[in-house]
Task: structure prediction
Amino acid sequence: MSGAKKSTWIGGTAFLCLVLIVAAWFLVIAPKRASAADVRAQAAQIEAQNDTLELKVAKLAADAKRLPELKKQLAQLRIGIPSDSALAAYLQQLDKIAVAHDVTIENVAPSAAQAVTLAQAAAPAPTPAPSGSAAASVDAASSTPSDATSPAATQPTASPVPEGFAAIPLSLTVVGTYDDTTAFVSDLQKTNGRLFLVGGFTATGQPDQEASAGKPQTKVGDQELVISGFAYVLPDAAAAATPAPEPTAGPKLPKAPNDKSPYTPVKGEQ
Result:
């Protein structure tokens, strides 16, 4: 009888130990293992971010060493596309080109600046529907529009045109020989200065004529060339983002003595 009681106690103790082990696993060990796994995952993610930041820092350090060179390149690009219209400086550039090729500029007519936009591609023509027996053989599933759309149709694409990029329409009228006016148009687009895109031109032959009304003397074979095109402007984004300085307070006016009003008339001596 005592052996049966001992067996019962032993079995109960073993069962209780088993219950305690299972409870410890689910209540203590398993959460700690999950927490440790989360910590390891976060540590791996942080290490990956640190590696990315180190690459960015290295690139910024390399760019910082090239900063003087980049500033020179920017200054050179600003000559071709300035941050404002700078028409007075451009007229001086045109005069230099005209003098170099012995042509006379009769007129320069700029217009208001226009924002530069890219032309939209034409939509593809719809595919004609099949007819006759071919329409009957089309699978019904293929005619059902799919829920999935192409990434190009759903994701907006960034505009390649910088914000504020504008074109100034210009019309130039020059007079000279055929060779000189042709060379003027060539240098107008190639000279290391303000960029100018020729959109079109109209040439008119000139007769033998004396100078009059601002027009130079011409001979047979000379031509008057009306050139239309565009000069470009790109505002400086960094300068536009710089906030304007806050107004400072002016000097305080002196207070009237004995709190008397300064507008009180003063009695004079007679």
Notes: The CA atoms of residues 93 and 144 lie 63 Å apart. The helical segments are 2-65, 67-80, 87-100, 133-136, 140-143, 151-154, 178-190, 237-241. Residues 12-65 form one domain. The chain has eight helices and five strands.
